[in-house]
Automatic annotation (TrEMBL), chain A:
Keywords: DNA-binding, Transcription, Transcription regulation. This is GntR family transcriptional regulator. InterPro entries: Tscrpt_reg_HTH_GntR (IPR000524), WH-like_DNA-bd_sf (IPR036388), WH_DNA-bd_sf (IPR036390). GO terms for molecular function: DNA binding; DNA-binding transcription factor activity.
Amino acid sequence: MFIQIEPQSDVPIYEQVTRKIMEGIARGEMKPGDTLPSVRNLAADLGVNMHTVNKSYHELEEKGIITIRAKSGAIIRSAEERALTPEQLQTIEKNLKPVVVEGMVLGATAEQIEHMIKKVFSDLQIPAEGV
Amino acid sequence: MLLGVFSTVYIITLALQVFVPYIVRETIIFGVTVPEQNLKNSALRNMKKQYAQFVGISGVLLLLMMIVCYYYFAQSEFMQGILLLGCLFAMLAVSMTLYWKNHQKVLKLKKEEQWGLNIKQVRAVDLTARSRDEMLPWPFYVIPFGVTVFLIIFTFRHYDQIPDHIAVHWGPSGEADSWRSKTYFTAVSLPLVMLMVQCMMWGTVDSIKRSAIKLAVNRKEESLEDQLKSRKYMSWSIMLLSYGFTILFTVLQLSNIYPSMTTGTWLLPVFILFLLLVLGSVLVYAWKKRKQRVNYGDNVVSEVMDVDEDRYWKGGLIYVNRQDPSVFVEKRFGVGWTMNFANPRGYIVIGLPLLILLFISFFSL
């Protein structure tokens, strides 16, 4: 699975890595049980500091998406293992709120925002090359 | 004999110099990153062609001059050495000068026409690439260490039988021409040099393994294939070199312990074989690189390009990038890999053994 990073973007690199990996899982390009490359290797391939990748992996672990094991590395958890908890749902809502608010202030309707969310869902379900 | 061997070295070096612009990544032209969107600029194509022609013709002229001078003017061995090396360096100087001129030209063109100014730079990575990496595992490079250790023990056990003078240098005819008096240190100096070279080779392969698998963002699949193969071939050729070197030095060391081995010039074929191995592996590597090179048929229509790393390449030749954890990166103008001079790891795996090697040579050879 390919991921793309923009070093000059305003979004910090660790966050870009986190997002791309999540997208890969959502799209089904990475399956539960797949291992991510080691922190050292991914840092080398991206040409970034090891801490950057480490930060991203820990973020993914905190979100309950991967498990980091000392020997076998970072493994993507299965759907059952990452069953959605009420707390996680709350976090998602919290993160979504400012975006929706921004839309409201600018005059977007509930339908428009709903449509956008549906669009994101359907976009990710069709495996597409390197979006 | 000397002329024949040297001419071979010269011709192969010349061929590599001539074809370098056609072996390196197509998006790197004379050490300058050119966006795929501007690749098919006719000025660039002409520059490459002119470079190849000029270096080729002047290289052949120098070779002819070298051969003529060798037969008519160079009488002593010293003069011959000066002549041969002088011609080789003159040829390299011509190609480097021309490289430098073209490097400046491409830089200017890039700036004037604002190449890549409005193109987003991205870095692509394949998360599964590492599981497909086929570089040889480390034991292949550690086995020769055993030979060296055995040789050192063997030398000490046969210390009394070694003649009082130990050969440390061999002339072009394969006969020893420089000796040192026997001490415990000079007796094992060859195996020690051998050990350092083996360390450097292992260190190089290990560092390449830890270095980036760099993809071309608009040609991901093809460039991944190229990268995986380059790494594989590189690890094979370094293994061959390491084994070849081990055999050569083992033979030399044994001939020191059993001087009767060196009667006649039978060491010569060993030297020549080693030379052939070195040159052969470079040629095969260059050939493979050329064959698997990612080709851009036309100007690429894309919103993105690879990250422009020109500012980390001093003169387009020396890589200094503090942020990059890679120790080795592929050369931008040349065949093979070069060190990231901002990475301290490189100084440890390459610099330290080299320093010890120089130290041994200085005090014993």
